[in-house]
Amino acid sequence: MSGSRTSMRIVVAVTSSTALLEVNKIPSIVRAIKGIQEFAHRTPLTVVSTEAYSDDVKVILDRHNLFATFIVCNPNSPLDLAQGLKDEIDGNDALLIHDASRPLTRLDQFTRIIEAYDEGADAIRPATVFTETLKIIDGDSVVLETLDRTSVKRVATPELIRTSAIDLKGKSQGWFLPLKKRARITHIEGAPESLRINTKEDGLLMESFLHWRQTST
CA-to-CA distance for 92 and 113, rounded, in angstroms? Predict the structure, then answer.
Protein backbone atom coordinates (compact mmCIF):
# COMPACT_ATOMS: atom_id res chain seq x y z
CA MET A 1 0.00 0.00 0.00
CA SER A 2 1.35 3.39 -0.88
CA GLY A 3 2.24 5.89 1.76
CA SER A 4 4.32 5.19 4.84
CA ARG A 5 1.48 6.20 7.16
CA THR A 6 -1.08 3.77 5.70
CA SER A 7 -2.00 1.04 8.20
CA MET A 8 -3.85 -2.18 7.43
CA ARG A 9 -5.23 -5.04 9.50
CA ILE A 10 -5.87 -8.55 8.21
CA VAL A 11 -9.17 -10.11 9.28
CA VAL A 12 -9.79 -13.81 8.63
CA ALA A 13 -13.47 -14.67 8.98
CA VAL A 14 -14.75 -18.11 9.95
CA THR A 15 -18.04 -17.97 8.07
CA SER A 16 -18.96 -21.66 8.41
CA SER A 17 -17.74 -25.03 9.67
CA THR A 18 -16.04 -25.61 6.29
CA ALA A 19 -13.21 -23.39 7.52
CA LEU A 20 -12.25 -26.33 9.74
CA LEU A 21 -12.20 -28.91 6.93
CA GLU A 22 -8.79 -30.16 5.87
CA VAL A 23 -7.34 -29.86 2.39
CA ASN A 24 -4.48 -32.35 2.10
CA LYS A 25 -4.44 -32.66 5.90
CA ILE A 26 -4.18 -28.91 6.51
CA PRO A 27 -7.28 -27.07 7.82
CA SER A 28 -8.73 -24.56 5.40
CA ILE A 29 -8.31 -21.71 7.89
CA VAL A 30 -4.60 -22.49 8.26
CA ARG A 31 -4.07 -22.42 4.50
CA ALA A 32 -6.03 -19.17 4.26
CA ILE A 33 -3.98 -17.49 7.00
CA LYS A 34 -0.61 -18.70 5.70
CA GLY A 35 -1.52 -17.65 2.19
CA ILE A 36 -2.40 -14.12 3.23
CA GLN A 37 0.63 -13.88 5.54
CA GLU A 38 2.87 -14.85 2.65
CA PHE A 39 1.63 -11.66 1.04
CA ALA A 40 1.71 -9.47 4.18
CA HIS A 41 3.66 -11.35 6.84
CA ARG A 42 4.15 -8.37 9.17
CA THR A 43 0.56 -7.16 9.10
CA PRO A 44 -1.41 -7.68 12.34
CA LEU A 45 -3.98 -10.49 12.21
CA THR A 46 -7.45 -10.79 13.69
CA VAL A 47 -9.61 -13.92 13.47
CA VAL A 48 -13.38 -13.60 13.89
CA SER A 49 -15.76 -16.48 14.55
CA THR A 50 -19.12 -17.20 16.10
CA GLU A 51 -19.21 -18.88 19.50
CA ALA A 52 -20.14 -22.18 17.80
CA TYR A 53 -16.71 -22.59 16.19
CA SER A 54 -14.53 -20.54 18.54
CA ASP A 55 -13.11 -23.39 20.63
CA ASP A 56 -12.19 -25.49 17.60
CA VAL A 57 -10.64 -22.52 15.83
CA LYS A 58 -8.51 -21.61 18.84
CA VAL A 59 -7.23 -25.21 19.08
CA ILE A 60 -6.27 -25.19 15.39
CA LEU A 61 -4.51 -21.82 15.65
CA ASP A 62 -2.56 -22.99 18.69
CA ARG A 63 -1.63 -26.31 17.07
CA HIS A 64 -0.19 -24.52 14.04
CA ASN A 65 1.51 -21.73 16.03
CA LEU A 66 -0.62 -19.02 14.46
CA PHE A 67 -0.96 -15.96 16.66
CA ALA A 68 -3.91 -13.64 16.24
CA THR A 69 -6.33 -11.42 18.09
CA PHE A 70 -9.51 -13.47 18.44
CA ILE A 71 -12.96 -11.89 18.39
CA VAL A 72 -16.26 -13.70 18.89
CA CYS A 73 -19.00 -12.21 16.68
CA ASN A 74 -21.03 -13.17 13.62
CA PRO A 75 -18.96 -12.50 10.48
CA ASN A 76 -22.02 -13.21 8.33
CA SER A 77 -23.78 -10.16 9.78
CA PRO A 78 -22.21 -6.89 8.55
CA LEU A 79 -23.52 -4.89 11.51
CA ASP A 80 -22.42 -7.46 14.09
CA LEU A 81 -19.01 -7.75 12.45
CA ALA A 82 -18.63 -3.97 12.35
CA GLN A 83 -19.32 -3.73 16.07
CA GLY A 84 -16.95 -6.60 16.82
CA LEU A 85 -14.19 -4.96 14.78
CA LYS A 86 -14.76 -1.43 16.09
CA ASP A 87 -11.27 -1.15 17.63
CA GLU A 88 -9.67 -2.43 14.42
CA ILE A 89 -11.75 0.01 12.36
CA ASP A 90 -10.81 2.95 14.60
CA GLY A 91 -7.12 2.05 14.63
CA ASN A 92 -6.42 1.37 10.94
CA ASP A 93 -6.78 2.92 7.51
CA ALA A 94 -8.01 -0.30 5.90
CA LEU A 95 -9.14 -3.85 6.70
CA LEU A 96 -8.28 -6.79 4.45
CA ILE A 97 -11.01 -9.37 5.12
CA HIS A 98 -10.61 -12.94 3.90
CA ASP A 99 -13.00 -15.89 4.16
CA ALA A 100 -11.30 -18.82 5.93
CA SER A 101 -13.20 -21.20 3.63
CA ARG A 102 -11.22 -19.95 0.60
CA PRO A 103 -7.82 -21.58 1.26
CA LEU A 104 -6.17 -21.45 -2.18
CA THR A 105 -6.53 -17.79 -3.11
CA ARG A 106 -3.59 -16.70 -5.28
CA LEU A 107 -1.12 -14.01 -4.22
CA ASP A 108 -1.86 -11.92 -7.30
CA GLN A 109 -5.42 -11.42 -6.04
CA PHE A 110 -4.07 -9.62 -2.98
CA THR A 111 -1.59 -7.61 -5.05
CA ARG A 112 -4.20 -6.40 -7.53
CA ILE A 113 -6.59 -5.46 -4.73
CA ILE A 114 -3.89 -3.31 -3.12
CA GLU A 115 -3.26 -1.65 -6.49
CA ALA A 116 -6.96 -0.77 -6.80
CA TYR A 117 -6.90 0.64 -3.26
CA ASP A 118 -3.88 2.81 -4.09
CA GLU A 119 -5.76 4.11 -7.12
CA GLY A 120 -8.51 5.42 -4.84
CA ALA A 121 -11.12 2.67 -4.44
CA ASP A 122 -12.76 2.36 -1.02
CA ALA A 123 -13.93 -1.26 -1.30
CA ILE A 124 -12.41 -3.89 -3.58
CA ARG A 125 -12.92 -7.63 -4.06
CA PRO A 126 -12.53 -10.29 -6.79
CA ALA A 127 -15.45 -11.21 -9.04
CA THR A 128 -15.86 -13.62 -11.96
CA VAL A 129 -18.55 -13.82 -14.61
CA PHE A 130 -20.91 -16.78 -14.85
CA THR A 131 -20.43 -19.06 -17.82
CA GLU A 132 -23.28 -21.37 -16.83
CA THR A 133 -26.90 -20.91 -17.87
CA LEU A 134 -28.87 -19.50 -14.94
CA LYS A 135 -32.55 -20.33 -14.58
CA ILE A 136 -35.22 -19.62 -11.97
CA ILE A 137 -37.12 -22.84 -11.20
CA ASP A 138 -40.23 -23.17 -9.02
CA GLY A 139 -41.09 -25.93 -6.55
CA ASP A 140 -42.49 -28.10 -9.33
CA SER A 141 -39.23 -27.89 -11.34
CA VAL A 142 -40.84 -25.62 -13.91
CA VAL A 143 -38.45 -23.09 -15.48
CA LEU A 144 -39.86 -19.64 -14.83
CA GLU A 145 -37.12 -17.49 -16.29
CA THR A 146 -33.65 -17.59 -17.83
CA LEU A 147 -31.47 -14.93 -16.25
CA ASP A 148 -29.14 -12.69 -18.17
CA ARG A 149 -25.84 -14.03 -16.88
CA THR A 150 -24.00 -10.87 -17.92
CA SER A 151 -25.76 -9.12 -15.04
CA VAL A 152 -24.62 -11.72 -12.45
CA LYS A 153 -21.16 -12.21 -10.99
CA ARG A 154 -19.63 -14.67 -8.55
CA VAL A 155 -17.87 -12.63 -5.87
CA ALA A 156 -15.04 -13.83 -3.64
CA THR A 157 -12.58 -12.61 -1.06
CA PRO A 158 -10.35 -10.96 0.03
CA GLU A 159 -12.24 -7.73 0.46
CA LEU A 160 -10.16 -4.63 1.11
CA ILE A 161 -12.20 -1.88 2.72
CA ARG A 162 -11.06 1.63 3.58
CA THR A 163 -12.19 2.22 7.17
CA SER A 164 -13.32 5.79 6.41
CA ALA A 165 -15.89 4.25 4.02
CA ILE A 166 -17.45 2.00 6.70
CA ASP A 167 -20.87 2.96 8.08
CA LEU A 168 -21.09 1.34 11.53
CA LYS A 169 -24.88 1.72 11.52
CA GLY A 170 -25.51 1.28 7.83
CA LYS A 171 -27.40 -1.36 5.88
CA SER A 172 -25.78 -4.38 4.27
CA GLN A 173 -24.82 -4.02 0.62
CA GLY A 174 -23.50 -7.55 0.25
CA TRP A 175 -20.04 -6.80 1.64
CA PHE A 176 -18.54 -8.04 4.90
CA LEU A 177 -19.03 -4.57 6.39
CA PRO A 178 -21.72 -1.91 5.76
CA LEU A 179 -20.45 0.83 3.47
CA LYS A 180 -21.28 4.50 3.20
CA LYS A 181 -23.51 5.45 0.28
CA ARG A 182 -20.74 7.29 -1.56
CA ALA A 183 -18.12 4.57 -1.11
CA ARG A 184 -16.12 3.97 -4.29
CA ILE A 185 -16.60 0.27 -5.08
CA THR A 186 -14.68 -1.77 -7.63
CA HIS A 187 -13.98 -5.39 -8.54
CA ILE A 188 -10.89 -7.09 -9.87
CA GLU A 189 -10.99 -10.20 -12.04
CA GLY A 190 -11.34 -13.26 -9.83
CA ALA A 191 -9.46 -16.56 -10.14
CA PRO A 192 -10.80 -20.15 -10.00
CA GLU A 193 -8.52 -20.89 -7.03
CA SER A 194 -10.69 -18.54 -4.97
CA LEU A 195 -13.40 -21.21 -4.89
CA ARG A 196 -15.17 -21.37 -1.54
CA ILE A 197 -15.42 -24.71 0.26
CA ASN A 198 -19.12 -25.22 0.98
CA THR A 199 -19.17 -29.01 1.43
CA LYS A 200 -16.83 -31.91 2.07
CA GLU A 201 -17.08 -32.71 -1.64
CA ASP A 202 -15.75 -29.22 -2.42
CA GLY A 203 -12.80 -29.98 -0.16
CA LEU A 204 -12.05 -33.19 -2.06
CA LEU A 205 -12.27 -31.33 -5.37
CA MET A 206 -9.84 -28.73 -4.05
CA GLU A 207 -7.45 -31.47 -2.95
CA SER A 208 -7.45 -32.81 -6.51
CA PHE A 209 -6.84 -29.33 -7.88
CA LEU A 210 -4.01 -28.70 -5.41
CA HIS A 211 -2.38 -32.01 -6.35
CA TRP A 212 -2.64 -31.15 -10.06
CA ARG A 213 -1.15 -27.68 -9.49
CA GLN A 214 1.77 -29.08 -7.49
CA THR A 215 2.61 -31.80 -10.02
CA SER A 216 2.29 -29.51 -13.06
CA THR A 217 4.77 -26.89 -11.82
Answer: 17
pLDDT tens digits, 139-162: 877 777 777 766 677 899 999 999
Tell me how many domains the chain contains. 1
Q: How many CB atoms lie within 10 A of CB 55?
A: 10
Task: Let me know: does 84 contact 71? Beta carbons within 8 Å.
Answer: yes
Q: pTM for the complete prediction?
A: 0.88
Distance CA 217, CA 213 (A): 6
Ordered DSSP codes for 152-206: -EEE-S-EEEEGGGB-TT----SSSS-B-TT--EEEEEP-GGG----SHHHHHHH
Q: Which of 106, 127, 124 is nearest to 115 (CA)?
A: 124
For the CA atoms of 175, 177, 178, 182, the dihedral, rounded to the nearest 10 degrees, stands at: -70
CATH number for 203: 3.90.550.10
DSSP letter at 105? -
Asked if residue 146 lies in contact with residue 132, where contact means CB atoms within 8 angstroms, the answer is: no
Cα separation, 96 vs 113, whole angstroms? 9
Percent of the chain's residues with pLDDT above 70: 90
3-state helix, strand, coil in the chain (%, to 5): 35, 25, 40
Please check whether residue 3 lies inside any domain of the structure: no
The answer to whether residue 32 is domain-embedded is yes
